[in-house]
Amino acid sequence: MASKEQKSGKVMGVYFPNLYLWLVFLSALDVVLTRVILYFNGTELNPLAAWIIERGGQLGMSLFKFVIVAFVIIICEYTASINRKTARRLALAGCLITAVPVVWSSYLLLELIMTFEPGTETTYPGDLDVIFEHQDAVSSQGDR
Fold first, then answer.
1. Is 55 domain-assigned?
2. Total domains, the chain
3. Which of 18, 20, 28, 72 lies at a 20 to 30 A Cα distance from 86?
4. Domain annotation covers residue 79
């Protein structure tokens, strides 16, 4: 592994760019999947995240998640200046911990897709039934 410092002593880049990329990707995927599950009347299991979503909505949820990601990266970078092996383990642990809700949400969505029976739903999620019922009413009036 190449040294992070040039001869001039200036720091170049970050210690674990690939792990940080995975951390950001998994965190973004977690935000997206959480939003989809909430759209289909699911619930947030993390009480702190649920409170933030209740207060700040989608924007609050996204900001909360990426503040955590930034905090983890800052901690890893600081730790890497002292002990690279420990910092790498922290970055890897951050990725693995972030992957857990992504895997769980993916399972829930897959289960929803596999057990869905068209025509059995009473309303569409998020009040979309109003839009579809309106279109049906408009098209049936046009048939007269």
1. yes
2. 1
3. 28
4. yes
pTM passes above 0.85:
no
Across-strand partners of 72? none
Concatenate the DSSP letters of all residues of the chain into one string. Answer: ---SB-TT--B-S-S-HHHHHHHHHHHHHHHHHHHHHHHTT---SSHHHHHHHHHHHHHHHHHHHHHHHHHHHHHHHHHHHH-HHHHHHHHHHHHHHHHHHHHHHHHHHHHHHHH--TT--SS-GGGHHHHHHHHHHHHHHHT-
pLDDT score, position 78: 96
Establish if 62 belongs to a structural domain: yes
Residue 121's pLDDT is: 64
HEC secondary structure over 73-104: HHHHHHHHHHCHHHHHHHHHHHHHHHHHHHHH
pLDDT at 126: 61
Q: Do the domain assignments include residue 111?
A: yes
123 vs 74, which has greater pLDDT?
74
Residue among 121, 124, 140 at smallest CA distance from 132: 124
Judged by average pLDDT, the poorest of 17-21, 34-38, 137-141 is: 137-141
As given in the structure block, the two tokens for residue 85 are 């092996």
